[in-house]
Fold:
Amino acid sequence: MTSRFKGFYKLPAGERIRKLLENVSVSEAGALFLESGGGLDLSLADKISENVISVLGLPLSVALNFVIDSREVLVPMAVEEPSIVAGASKAALIVRAAGGFVTRASDPVMTAQVQVYDVANHSAAKVALESAENEIVLLANAAIPSMVSRGGGARSIEIRDLKEGMVVTHIYVDCRDAMGANVADSVAEAVAPRIAQIAGGKVGLRILSNLPLNRMVKASAKIPVSAFNSPEVAKGVAMASRFAELDVYRAVTHNKGIMNGIDAVAVACGQDFRSIEAAAHGFAGMGEGYRPLSSWRIEDSGEGAHLVGELELPLAAGIVGGSTQATPGARLCLELVGAKTSRELASVIASAGLAANLASLLALSTEGIQRGHMRLHSRKKSTPG
Structure:
């Protein structure tokens, strides 16, 4: 399998599908979905959501040229903006020639939160809860036996004193290949009464946190400066990155460019992109101020000058459960990605984010964002309505 299809964008849509199916192994249902033009049957949509009246479509594209951890990857993107797909593919081609993206993802650990309020003695509550960690972990795992049987389950707890009579317990749950929201919620609800009893307070909220700081993913790329038309291009990318580190107004737009790629893949693969967005921006806002999620800099370690990019963020992705199997489109996209674990899918999503980020910075530091952006937009003018 290869993700390198030269001149792919020049082919009619039908030819693209044919070429794709010749090179990628997908299920019969997936092939049928592509050949029928995709979409979602209204009766199925009615089962998935509430008060359904119709179905709103998005173009489903593939970003090409990705090599991630030495693996050829076709990256599906559901997005209405053509420059996101084109830009990510172009950036991936540059990174491909330099060896591809390198990623690292931590274990898929989600955070379940139990809030207890009206706690009279914070210090005593914290000590008592920490002493009861084994009991709480066992109680948590009893609520999710199927996850435990798959090698997941509650691992540990952490107690946070929020003052004002409020103590919060975090239960860290390994969710394996699921995104894990339902698992974390089940754990929080199961252990909440006992936690409140131990802490000497009243049960408040019991729900997952969408800031999974124990579920991090990092993507990086190292490109020889000589790969660019001019050293000034690489310098321009590094300067644009530094701008984002110094200015919150630019940092927000910098991160939006990252999320262009991340959200497009997340939507295509049936992920909770709202959770992914919330986690990304929450992480960017931790510490002394809002900051960029990625950085690009020029390094010279004796092997010649390289443009080095790194992206790190908390990212909860799943290949089972949730909406991943609810629609034929999401099932097909997961087949195209070929991720065998939730960590591998998170690595693909993060790499797409770094590629979209590089594409934006290259455009901004050379011809400006509007030239290529508007050239791709011009085709929309001929669409009906």
Q: What stands out?
A: The radius of gyration is 23 Å. The CA atoms of residues 165 and 257 lie 41 Å apart. The longest strand covers residues 153-163.
